[in-house]
């Protein structure tokens, strides 16, 4: 090799010694198709707008279907719930009007805390005014002690705990007793005036009785402080033999009367249907006040 040809040989070797870049297949393919792509139409990304109307259709269509479903459920009739089987001894047929008319039958509710002296004053009114005395408590105790009563054990539990017996039982017992008295009156006995002692104990009792049995004339309310009533009940418990004349039951009865019966008195008082008598004095003095208040309401003594 001559010196003159050496530079050209070195240049050739230099080119041959440089490593060749090996393109990956994807790139080579890209290079192959590049002329076709480059020659085609270009798409401007800004011109591709999202179509909104399908989403609007789905939203309003779904909302409308939901509203329709809710309204359909609201308008659907609920299946009737069968009431519990009625007791043949205490049940009464449904009626649109009260059993007795207030023009022919007089009903006076007698209320007061336990030990207020209701029973004593009712006995005086029976003697002098011809009333028939019905004690809700006595009727419940009689039903409790009746051998074949389905409600005996339940009534006993309520009374012992100082709680109020379910309205349906008490109202039906009173209606049955009044019906028996009316039948006796037809035979010549007196029975168109009723004192219902210890009733109504709750608002639902009052409303149910006046709606289905007979509207009352008024409530005769014996107002007496708790300490006086408690002393009377403890003394009575020594000889009465009543299961609720004990210290524990007395406290429960006081609480029940304040919480449930006083709202009844307040309601009737707003209606102008309460005759209030202070019951802290002796029985005779209290009765004198009772006679005075009865005369103011148009009731005269018959004996």
Q: How much is the radius of gyration in Å?
A: 47 Å
Roughly what fraction of the amino acids lie in strands?
5-15%
**Principal-axis shape:** globular
Helix and strand string, N-terminal first? Answer: HHHEHEHHHEHEHHEH
β-strand number:
5
**Unreliable spans:** 26-40, 73-90
Count of helices? 11
Give your account of this protein's structure.
A five-stranded parallel sheet has the order 2-3-1-4-5, with helices on both faces. Helix 7 (167-186) runs parallel beside helix 8 (203-212). The relative contact order is 0.13. Helix content is 54%, strand content 9%. The chain has 303 residues and is of the alpha/beta class. The chain has eleven helices and five strands; from the N terminus they run αααβαβαααβαβααβα.
How are the elements arranged and paired?
Elements: H1 6-17, H2 25-39, H3 53-75, E1 106-112, H4 118-129, E2 132-135, H5 136-145, H6 152-160, H7 167-186, E3 193-197, H8 203-212, E4 218-223, H9 226-240, H10 247-270, E5 274-278, H11 283-296
Parallel strand pairs: 1-3, 1-4, 2-3, 4-5
Helix pairs in contact: 4-11, 5-6, 5-7, 7-8
């Amino acid at each position: 090799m001559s010196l003159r040809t050496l530079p050209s040989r070195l240049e050739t070797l230099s080119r041959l010694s440089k490593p060749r870049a090996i393109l990956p297949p994807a790139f080579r393919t890209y290079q192959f198709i590049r002329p076709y792509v480059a020659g085609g139409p270009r798409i401007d990304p800004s011109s591709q707008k999202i179509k909104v109307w399908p989403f609007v259709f789905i939203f309003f269509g779904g909302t409308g279907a939901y509203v329709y479903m809710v309204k359909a459920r609201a308008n659907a009739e609920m299946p009737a719930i069968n009431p519990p089987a009625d007791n043949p001894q205490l049940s009464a047929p449904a009626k649109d009007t009260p059993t007795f008319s207030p023009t022919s039958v007089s009903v006076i509710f007698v209320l007061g805390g336990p030990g207020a002296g209701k029973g004593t004053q009712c006995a005086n009114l029976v003697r002098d005014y011809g009333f028939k005395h019905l004690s809700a408590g006595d009727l419940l105790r009689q039903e409790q002690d009746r051998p074949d009563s389905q409600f005996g054990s339940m009534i006993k539990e309520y009374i012992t705990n100082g709680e109020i017996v379910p309205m349906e039982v008490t109202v039906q017992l009173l209606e049955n007793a009044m019906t028996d008295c009316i039948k006796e009156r037809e035979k010549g006995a007196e029975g168109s005036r009723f004192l219902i002692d210890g009733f109504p104990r709750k608002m639902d009792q009052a409303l149910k009785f006046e709606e289905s049995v007979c509207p009352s004339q008024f409530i005769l309310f014996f107002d007496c402080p708790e300490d006086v009533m408690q002393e009377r009940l403890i003394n009575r418990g020594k000889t009465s033999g009543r299961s609720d004349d004990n210290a524990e039951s007395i406290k429960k009865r006081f609480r029940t009367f304040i919480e449930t019966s006083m709202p009844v008195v307040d309601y009737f008082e707003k209606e102008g249907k309460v005759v209030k008598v202070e019951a802290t004095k002796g029985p005779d003095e209290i009765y004198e006040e009772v006679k005075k208040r009865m005369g103011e309401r148009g009731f005269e003594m018959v004996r």
